[in-house]
Amino acid sequence: MRLLLCEDEEDILYALAKGLKKLNYYTDTATDGEEALHLYYENTYDLIVLDVNMPKLDGFEVLKLIREDNPNQRVLILSARSSLDDKVKGLNLGANDYLTKPFHFAELEARIRAILRTPYMQNSDVIRLTSFDIALYIQKKQVFKSNEMIPLTPKEYSIFEYLCCHKNTFVSSSELLEHNVDMNANDTSQVIKVHIASIRKKLGSDVIKTHRGMGYSVTD
After folding, report:
1. How many Cα atoms occupy the beta-carbon half-sphere of 112 within 13 Å?
2. Which regions of 23-168 does DSSP assign to beta strands (E)?
3. Cβ(172)–Cβ(215) under 8 Å?
4. Each residue of 77-123: pLDDT tens digit?
5. Does the domain spanning 126-217 belong to CATH 3.50.80.10?
6. CA dihedral 171, 176, 178, 181 (to 10 degrees)
C-alpha cells in the first residue's frame, strides 16, 4: 500500500514515515499544502494522511481540491485542531476519518487499516468482466466465474481485485507490490508473476493480459 503523509512538523513526519515503513507501507512525504497537491496529482495513493495546519495551503483547502478531482480518494485528517467545528468541517469536506493530536501510533495504524479495508470503487460492490463471465464481489472478497465461486488465495485475490478496480489500464508489477496490503517487503516482481500465473490457471489464461515493459491489464 502506498501512502502520502502531509505534515509540516518534520520530527512528527519522520516518525510517522519510519513507523509505517516498518509495517510495509510505501510512503511519500510533504511538508506543505502545495507539495502535497503536487505529489497527489503526480502519483496514485491508497490513502492520504493530511495535517490541517500546513503552510502555503492548509489541509482543508487541499482536501477540498482533492475531493473535486477524485471523490473516492481515501483521506485521513491528522490535526491538533480538536474542536467539534473543525472535526465537522473536515468530515463534511469528505475526510474518511479525523484523528486529533496527540495520538498513539497504534490507534493511527488501526484507523489506517480500517480505511484501507473500504473498497476502491465505493459506488459498486461488484465488478464484472462480462467477456469472461467473471464477477468480483468486493465486500465478500469472492470471485465467481460462470456462477461458480473460484477460490483464490489472499494474495491472488488482492492482485486480481486491484487489476479489476483499474481495468482497461496498464498496472505495473511495482504498482501491484506498492498498493496491496497482503504483500510484504520481501516480495518481488517475480512473486507477482507466480501469483498471476496461478490466477490464470483458475480463471482462464487470457483474463489477465501481459504488456511487455508496461505491466498487466484486465478488460471488460
Report:
1. 26
2. 26-30, 47-50, 75-79, 97-100, 126-129, 134-137, 142-145, 148-149
3. yes
4. 988 888 888 889 889 888 989 998 888 898 988 889 888 876 554 44
5. no
6. 140
Taking the domains of the chain in order of start, what are their residue ranges?
A: 2-116, 126-217
Q: What are phi and psi of 73, to 5 degrees?
A: -65, 130
Alpha-carbon gap, residue 92 to 65, rounded angstroms = 14
Whether domain 2-116 has CATH 3.40.50.300: the reply is no
**Helix (H/G/I), strand (E/B), else coil: 135:** strand
Q: Determine how β-strand 148-149 pairs with β-strand 209-211.
A: unpaired
Cell of 179: 498498493
What tens digit of pLDDT does each residue of 12-40 get? 999 999 999 888 788 899 999 999 999 99
